[in-house]
């Protein structure tokens, strides 16, 4: 970081970044990957909003959570978090719908703004890494966009921020209990040779790639994102929960086992490695800390078509538990041991991923009399070729197939979503059926 890039360090404190943050500091932020690391929350606010009160509540978030007023840099090979005394002056912006540039055909100006905010990277060097934009649509309707770089936030953190802003808006004078701070989290335990050997043993040799080889260098638009969204009906959700309970598994394990089965059916490849984002919060006092506590846990399983779904589920459950127990091993250290480059997306460990969130922001919650609705916003850039996302909300699961258009076309993604729902329904109806019977056949591969 140059002197020009750094705010006055006399009013800042410098800490070593944690292992999860370090990989995002050193990751090459390619021009084709603009917005890849942006986490966008879009909220529709209906009612007589006090905009000054909202701005104060948002600024108090940055006062409360130091990571929201931080910048990041590399000093030599050391990644650091620089905590500034004051929130960034550009943290909050307000505009009117009629002042926004027009969108493309069929796109509203507010929707066009959402795309621009999602697609415009934040600066780790300069900040802000947390930026809020409020749009006045009508006298009693506003849209609030919270854009946060992934280096300072994970899925759990979003819920913490929403809880805090609700408290600050309801009572501008409230003093909340001190929040745990990301930079105060003690370093992880030393990685043992046994733990590292587990990962190198699991991933050597690498599993084959079932998906087409996509290179950002060859095609800068290859990672333009497509998204297929669907929700499981309440009865399908209930059947999934019953299956999990009957087999002493989590819903996560059931849905992951179905994902492996569908990938086999869809591509014809049985041995698949995927990465699963995993929360590394290990102490109860850190559970309410805002920050990036995630790592990528590699999960590898070889589907045997003649095994029952119950056997597949048991194998996936045991594999996932063993991987989760070693989640403290930094991803970069595993990749170094394998001789892999973190930024090279052509390796099999990056081909596909699976994410599961136990709960999301509820629609219809109140901000001191203001109705708040969470508006879905889809990514502009896909981080990997194929990502299956699951979010539990009340009595159903919300699912998204996020895919890089250079690897998986829209029709193929739609077909994948249909197959997933079909296999899940069959598996929960009769877990004793074999994987081949559940899928019916080896489907058309992506290459065909």
UniProtKB/TrEMBL annotation:
Domain of life according to the entry: Bacteria
Organism: Streptomyces koyangensis
InterPro entries: CAT-like_dom_sf, Condensation_dom
Protein name per Swiss-Prot or TrEMBL: Condensation domain-containing protein
Lineage, uppermost ranks: Bacteria, Bacillati, Actinomycetota, Actinomycetes, Kitasatosporales
UniProt-listed SUPFAM superfamilies: CoA-dependent acyltransferases (SSF52777)
A Pfam family that the UniProt record links to this protein: Condensation
Residue span, Condensation domain: 16-438
């Amino acid at each position: 970081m140059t002197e020009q890039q750094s705010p006055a360090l006399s009013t800042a404190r410098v800490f070593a970044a944690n292992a999860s943050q370090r990989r995002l500091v050193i990751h090459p932020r390619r021009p084709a990957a603009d917005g890849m690391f942006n986490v966008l929350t879009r909220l529709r606010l209906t009612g007589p909003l006090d905009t000054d009160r909202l701005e104060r509540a948002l600024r108090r978030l940055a006062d409360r959570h130091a990571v929201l007023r931080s910048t990041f840099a590399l000093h030599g090979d050391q990644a650091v978090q620089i905590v500034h005394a004051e929130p960034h002056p550009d943290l909050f912006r307000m505009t009117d719908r009629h002042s926004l540039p027009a969108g493309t055909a069929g796109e509203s100006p507010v929707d066009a703004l959402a795309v621009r905010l999602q697609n415009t990277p934040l600066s780790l060097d300069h900040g802000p890494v947390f930026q809020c934009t409020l749009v006045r649509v009508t006298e009693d309707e506003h849209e609030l966009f919270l854009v946060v770089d992934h280096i300072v936030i994970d899925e759990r953190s979003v819920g913490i921020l929403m809880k805090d802003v609700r408290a600050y808006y309801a009572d501008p004078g409230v003093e909340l209990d001190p929040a745990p701070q990301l930079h105060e989290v003690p370093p992880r335990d030393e990685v043992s040779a046994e733990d590292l050997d587990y990962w190198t043993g699991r991933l050597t040799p690498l599993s084959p790639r079932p998906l087409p080889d996509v290179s950002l260098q060859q095609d800068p638009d290859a990672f333009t994102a497509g998204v297929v969204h669907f929700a499981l009906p309440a009865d399908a959700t209930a059947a999934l929960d019953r299956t999990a309970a009957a087999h002493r598994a989590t819903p996560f394990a059931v849905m992951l086992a179905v994902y492996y089965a569908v990938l086999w059916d869809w591509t014809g490849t049985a041995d698949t490695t995927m990465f699963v984002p995993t929360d590394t919060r290990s102490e109860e006092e850190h559970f309410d800390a805002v920050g990036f506590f995630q790592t990528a846990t590699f999960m590898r399983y070889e589907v045997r078509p003649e095994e029952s779904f119950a056997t597949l589920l048991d194998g996936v459950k045991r594999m996932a538990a063993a991987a989760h127990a070693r989640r403290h091993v930094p991803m970069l250290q595993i990749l170094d041991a394998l001789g892999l480059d973190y930024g090279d997306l052509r390796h099999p460990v990056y081909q596909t991923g699976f994410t599961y969130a136990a709960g999301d922001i509820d629609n219809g919650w109140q901000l001191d009399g203001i109705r708040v609705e969470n508006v879905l916003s889809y990514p502009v850039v896909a981080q990997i070729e194929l990502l299956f996302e699951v979010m539990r909300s009340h009595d159903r699961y919300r699912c998204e197939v996020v895919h890089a258009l250079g690897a998986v076309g829209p029709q193929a993604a739609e077909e994948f979503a249909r197959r997933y729902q079909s296999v899940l329904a069959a598996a929960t109806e009769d877990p004793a059926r074999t994987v081949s019977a559940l899928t019916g056949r080896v489907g058309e591969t992506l290459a065909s």
